[in-house]
Specification:
The chain is of the alpha/beta class. 45% of the residues lie in helices and 13% in strands. Strand 3 and strand 4 (78-80) form a beta hairpin.
């Protein structure tokens, strides 16, 4: 008997829609459209990522030449500061020795000579941040604007390695400045700072120096250190690891509360500079009364009194 011939075509399932057969698998119109949509979506995502990357990388060379001071943002931006809020170096009284040390260190750095990172610590309102900004202005004037000041906020310290990467190959020299630097609780961002100061595989770029101000000598709260001591297997090692952060600043400048004479000298210096005229006996009496109501004597209190006095006498303070 002759054998019945077998059909060699693909067996159709009842109700199935016709489709394209590729490698034994049937691809329907829906799956083809879905694949095309996925390819289009992937292409659009790639284009968006490229555009975003291009927008996130500004021309830093042109940006850095546009101003003498900048604010660092953790998204990679350096925002120029057209006018820095600073006090003239000559108006900073009672800190002559500290002023001379910081100026000398800054001058060496600006000339490409070895210099130390600096930690300015101590009593509040005694001109720590004012000295950093004034020192920058004084030294920068002698190097034709080649020394830039970049402020990084305390909460952005973890982005410091990214800033270092941007500055490393620049022709300018930079003071990276963090005001009121301190760490509390379980904050571990200080480790990023330690790696940049010393110890990281790349280390600090030769054209960058770090200046920081703090009310604390070791940058860490006492209870933070005590907690490490009480919970660590080896208390000594735990405390050493925390305290070693401030050790990585080669230059420590301690600011202490000023005397009454130094406070009055600050007030008189401000008044002479801005042309505020008042009988010296009356000036002294009012200045001391002002400091008593504030409960402290400092450069900040002297400046606040000067603003009060100038406003009352109708004198404009043009910095």
């Amino acid at each position: 008997m002759a054998k019945k011939s077998r059909k060699t075509g693909s067996r159709k399932t009842p109700g199935a829609r016709p489709g394209k057969t590729i490698g034994g698998a049937t691809k329907g119109p829906e799956s083809t459209a879905l694949a095309a949509a996925e390819r289009i979506a992937s292409a659009l995502e790639a284009i968006a990522a490229a555009m975003s990357s291009a927008a996130a990388k500004p021309d830093n060379g042109r940006t850095l030449a546009s101003a003498d001071a900048f604010i660092w943002h953790p998204d990679g931006r350096l925002a120029p500061v057209p006018r820095v809020s600073r006090v003239d170096l000559d108006l900073l009284r009672g800190i002559d020795r500290l002023r001379d040390i910081l100026i000398e260190n800054t001058e060496r750095f600006a000339k490409g000579l070895p210099a130390n990172n600096a930690l300015l610590w101590g009593a509040r309102g005694m001109g720590k941040s004012s000295l950093v900004k004034a020192a920058h202005a004084s030294v920068n004037a002698g190097v034709n604007g080649q020394l830039k000041l970049i402020e990084i906020h305390r909460e952005d310290i973890e982005s410091l390695p990214g800033l270092m990467e941007q500055l490393r190959l620049s022709e300018f020299r930079f003071i990276v400045f963090c005001d009121d630097l301190s760490f509390d609780g379980n904050d571990a961002s200080y480790k990023s700072l330690k790696a940049v100061l010393e110890g990281g595989i790349e280390g600090r770029p030769d054209n960058v120096i770090l200046y920081a101000t703090s009310n604390r000598r070791h940058l860490l709260a006492r209870d933070m250190i005590e907690n490490e001591r009480s919970t660590a297997i080896n208390p000594g090692e735990a405390v050493e690891e925390k305290v070693s952060l401030s050790d990585r600043f080669g230059l420590w400048l301690g600011f202490h509360r000023c005397s009454q004479d130094e406070y009055l000298a600050m007030v008189r210096g401000y008044c002479a500079h801005f042309g505020i005229k008042l009988d010296d006996t009356e000036l002294e009496r009012e200045a001391l009364e002002w400091s008593t109501t504030r409960g402290s004597r400092s450069g900040r209190v002297a400046w606040q009194f000067t603003q009060e006095l100038a406003g009352r006498l109708g004198v404009r303070l043009a910095k």
